Input
Amino acid sequence: MFRALLVFLLFSLASSVQAAIAVNAARIWPAEDYTRITLEADQAISYKIVMLKNPERLVLDLENVELNAKLKSLTDKIQASDPYIKQVRVANFKPNVVRMVIDIKAEVKPKIFALEPAGEYKHRLVLDIYPVVDPLMAMLSKRDNVASPSAIITEAKPVPDKAPVTLSPVEINAQEKPVPSITTAPILEKPVAEKPLTEIIASQPQAIKPPVSKQEISKEPAPVASQLPIPEPEKPVITGKKKSGRLIVVAIDAGHGGEDSGAIGATGSYEKNITLAVAKKLKARVDSEPNMRAVLIRDGDYFIPLHQRVVKARRLNADLFVSIHADAFVRPDAKGSSVFALSERGATSASARYLAKKENESDLIGGVSLDDKDVNLARTLLDLSQTATINDSLKLGKAVLGRLGTINALHKSVVEQAGFAVLKSPDIPSILVETAFISNPDEERRLNTESYQEKIADSIVAGIQRYFSGNPALAKTKLAGD
Output
């Protein structure tokens, strides 16, 4: 009896010891906006994190995690061009604890959170490394100061980075002090206050030719009247110029990105790659117009939450918002281009409702902390009774849809509406363009060609021009806190 009881106790004790968690994937997504590190496993990972100074580094302890090849591979994935991370060192700190030391290039604001399984992903631990000052706002503020006549411009000399020191696992244990027990809440400083932008300065202005000197002009012989060209009758020119004379700014949103690949085509194409390629061509096409400039909401392979895309467009005081996508459906024969606008009262069709639901799930796939209470989100979505903005969005959508119909079949001949989160700007006419069905093999093939991507860009710009030919840009609504 005693022997049986002892065996039972030993068995219970062995069962209570949890096996070490194996990390299935370790990914990194560097970008100017922020760098994200993602660890994926079959179970949720417990962790502790602390920031250390002199030199700047983050220390992340992963509890009850196995130090396997996947986790070690993260050290080789750090690029020299990463804006924030210098290097990553990984080693066993003590039994059942793996320590990750992240050497930082500058002062940062880390944010760490866990994600439940979503889509094809299992449990994920996400570490986002943000700059202390938003790079977009810093750039615009700097240009505003340069443009000011009273600004004093000084050139900052770069400080060379010290050569990285490679430490062995033993040195990691010896040099790093034990991490104090802290809560798993993110270590964040107060967000930098946003400044309202009264005008837009193009991020990539066209080159301006230097003025011709008087001496050079005097060298040219004055043409006689018979040599002057006969002027042709003036043709009406559609421009994007506002009545106020400032540039029209078009915010171009490449759908998905980073952890969120979007739809996957029949031959393995990722929607996030196609949308970014089209967005870049659309930006180049918009920038070629004399009175228009474009800004990319996402300019690389990284994830931006849906509401942050809206916030970014509003920070730039954009006049239009165009979100680029490539649809997918369960049937491979579904085809055609579509354009969508926001709806306040529900979707105009079952397919529009399905698409909006799928696109709005991007935050679950891409990875957004549920504790993220951004004041800009509340401000941006403050006024959803935006009838004027939606009406203008429908006009813009109709103009773009008409042009898309000249290069591809239309899935629906009218602009549809649904509750797309990415279109919820109260004062920017916004549309979502489904360029084609990536799930259709023929359309997927065309979507991957530069010639077709150029045609899409040309069609959207032509639609924008047509919209502005009959619709002056809306005056910006001043929301609380702007």
